[in-house]
Amino acid sequence: MERDEADEAQGRLVIPGGSNLQVTDLAPNVAVGMHRTPSIDYNIIVKGEATLITPDRNGGTAETLAKPGDVVVQRGTLHAWRAGPEGVRWICVLISAERVKGEDGKELPDVAL
């Protein structure tokens, strides 16, 4: 039995060399844990608000409030999201990219451990 790329791509946000567009809705105050994707992501907030959470250089985190009309670009950055009290909807265009590598040349994990 042969499998095509569409079958193999199930469950992935973006396939190597490909792109994807998706609409994401998060219910009020729902959080998405720290993660990164092997892609460049253009997140366009269209309804509600979300807090973007990223690691800072001091071992903590930085929080940025994203409102309708804001565009958040992720380039393999470790990040998390938390929806505001009204929830949030954003449109995301994901474009395949190489996995992020650390200073030692090793690929960084997709999920914070």
TrEMBL record:
<dbReference type="InterPro" id="IPR011051">
    <property type="entry name" value="RmlC_Cupin_sf"/>
</dbReference>
<dbReference type="InterPro" id="IPR014710">
    <property type="entry name" value="RmlC-like_jellyroll"/>
</dbReference>
<protein>
    <submittedName>
        <fullName>Uncharacterized protein</fullName>
    </submittedName>
</protein>
<dbReference type="InterPro" id="IPR047142">
    <property type="entry name" value="OryJ/VirC-like"/>
</dbReference>
